[in-house]
Design a protein that fits this description.
By secondary structure, this protein is an alpha/beta fold. The protein is about 10% helix and about 30% strand. The protein has 2 helices and 24 strands. The chain has helices spanning about 10-20, 70-80; strands at about 1-5, 25-30, 40-45, 45, 60-65, 90, 95, 100-105, 110, 115, 120, 125, 130-135, 140, 145, 150, 155, 160-165, 170, 175, 180, 185, 195-200, 205. The chain has an 8-stranded mixed beta sheet with strand order 6-9-12-15-18-21-23-24, with helices on one face. Strands 7-10-13-16-19-22 form a 6-stranded parallel beta sheet, with no helix packed on it. Strand 3 and strand 4 form a beta hairpin. It is globular and about 50 Å long.
Length: about 210
């Protein structure tokens, strides 16, 4: 049974902890968080002994960066990788994942997610609750596909991009690097790097 440290004790971190508790090959042993209000407390019965600097003091087999902010999650992930940490991928047992799917390090695939054949999920990416990743999608590193979103076949979600809650991406559409597709929006054409697009169909936000 692998002992997993969770970086981030907020709401998303607690969802990730619950997913690990459902797994048969891992168990969460502690949260780490930089918020001084949380240090020294217990959350979900797990201690919060300190911030990220406490990692070396704790016995563990792997770490997951359970922080929703893509850029912050990327920075911490890269620091941990450089330090030689094992970035553990959390996969809720209710997720449906085709055998041909490729999943990188430190990913979080949560309850009810569906990832179909030929898809590729790069490092440190969140595939959130009840989201659908259709066939041959490519989800870039440090991206976040939010709860209830639906991505058609052959979609590309680039590095650090965000697909909001309940959003839809039509087949063969790209969401650019660092771009945001707003919650409930529908991307019918490519969204360029760094753009926030909202609405049905999604248009660049002024």
């Amino acid at each position: 049974m692998q002992k997993i440290i969770i970086i981030g004790a907020g709401g998303h971190g607690q969802v990730v902890a619950d997913a690990i508790l459902q797994m048969t090959n891992a168990t969460p042993v502690a949260f780490l968080d930089e918020n001084p209000v949380l240090i020294g407390t217990e959350i979900m019965g797990l201690p919060v002994p300190g911030g990220n600097a406490s990692l070396n003091d704790l016995e563990h087999d792997g770490v997951v960066v359970a922080i929703g902010n893509n850029s912050l999650r990327k920075r911490i992930f890269n620091e941990l990788t450089k330090a030689g940490e094992n970035l553990f991928s959390v996969i809720h047992p209710s997720a449906v994942i085709a055998p041909t799917v490729k999943i990188g390090a430190g990913c979080m695939i949560l309850a009810g997610a569906v990832i179909n054949t030929g898809a590729e999920i790069k490092d440190n990416t969140i595939i959130n609750t009840n989201s659908t990743i259709e066939h041959h999608n490519k989800i870039g590193p440090h991206a976040h596909v939010a709860p209830g979103s639906v991505l058609g076949g052959e979609v590309l979600v680039a590095e650090e991009a965000m697909v909001g809650i309940g959003a839809t991406v039509l087949p063969r559409t790209s969401i650019g690097k660092g771009a945001i597709l707003g919650g409930g929006s529908t991307a019918t054409k490519d969204i360029a790097d760094g753009i926030t697009a909202v609405g049905v169909p999604a248009r660049a936000k002024a």
